[in-house]
Amino acid sequence: MVQQVTSGIKITVETNFEGTFYKNYKINFAFGYVVTIENQSKDSVQLNARHWIISDALNDEEIVSGEGVIGLKPVLQPGESHTYTSGCLLTSPFGAMKGYYSMVNFTTTKKFNVAIPSFKLSAPFALN
Asked: Which residue ranges does the record assign to the ApaG domain (predicted)?
């Protein structure tokens, strides 16, 4: 589990290995992750967009950007949190993800980015 606080917003990420399968004659490694976004600030905020950098051990990098998270743009009052589950596919048993959420503070109307700390993705069978 990794955690980081940016501008009063705490991000916690837990990962798990889901398994392997073949797609287009290539082996793929599936990983799941659970993200909790906790508003530790005194202002109401809304998550508007996400930006991910996904990399694997073969130096492949994928950038994923889009609105909200899993179709939602959660509004978080002070002390509230939002948890969601998602996943990704890698072509190697090791990788990492990092990024940021674009948010808006409803009190100040200012937009700001919240860092998503880098977290590792690793298939347990490949570890020494």
From this structure: 3-128
